[in-house]
Amino acid sequence: MGKPTDAEAEAAVRLLIEWAGDDPDREGLVDTPKRVARSYKELFSGYDENPRDYLERTFEEVGGYDELIVLRDIRIVSFCEHHMLPVIGRAHIGYLPNDRVVGISKLARVVNGFARRLQIQEKLTAEIADAISDILQPQGVGVVIEAEHSCMSLRGVKTTGSTLTTSRLRGVLRDDLRTREEFLRLVRGG
Questions:
Q1: Is 137 tagged catalytic?
Q2: pLDDT value for 187
Q3: Of these residues, 18, 82, 122, 181, which one is catalytic?
Q4: pLDDT for 77-103, tens place per residue?
Q5: Active site annotation includes 151
Q6: By the 8 A CB rule, do 79 and 86 touch?
Q7: What is the CA radius of gyration of the chain?
Q8: The dihedral sign for the CA sequence 56, 74, 89, 174
Q9: Would residue 149 show up in a list of annotated catalytic residues for this protein?
Q10: Which member of 18, 81, 122, 181 is catalytic?
Q11: Among 40, 41, 116, 166, which has the highest number of CB atoms less than 10 A from its own CB?
Q12: Full-prediction pTM beyond 0.85?
């Protein structure tokens, strides 16, 4: 079975509009199926790329730099695989390089590439950390994600403002207490 066409996706949106109790042919909704399909194509663009590819181009001329590199507050927009509702938050990434570093925009691209898929936050956190660890082979990697899940804030228990925090620490960021504490302090902005 191949990927559904845009027309099939638009027909599914029309059906959902009807299911919700509205008329997909009324003026305000007539173009909605096309807009929704187009926006979902963008929101789920992570299926059309391999985020690990962004980490392939590295820089070895680091002038002897051997301290933590931390990029904070990378905005995340993902979707819960259980309800297909938005998960919105921030990712914080740190790694202790060996011989090479990667451009910081590439870290943000890795986050966005993995985030633009249906999933749970725990898997997203692990995928980002594992990709950085596998490809850059640093001494250690840390990823912390803090996000609000619309499936909890818009429906069900309706706990607006609650955030889920997940972390994945590898190498010295997991095993060395001082390095782990430094990473977590930098993530907090301290």
A1: no
A2: 94
A3: 82
A4: 999 999 999 999 999 999 999 988 999
A5: yes
A6: yes
A7: 20
A8: positive
A9: yes
A10: 81
A11: 116
A12: yes
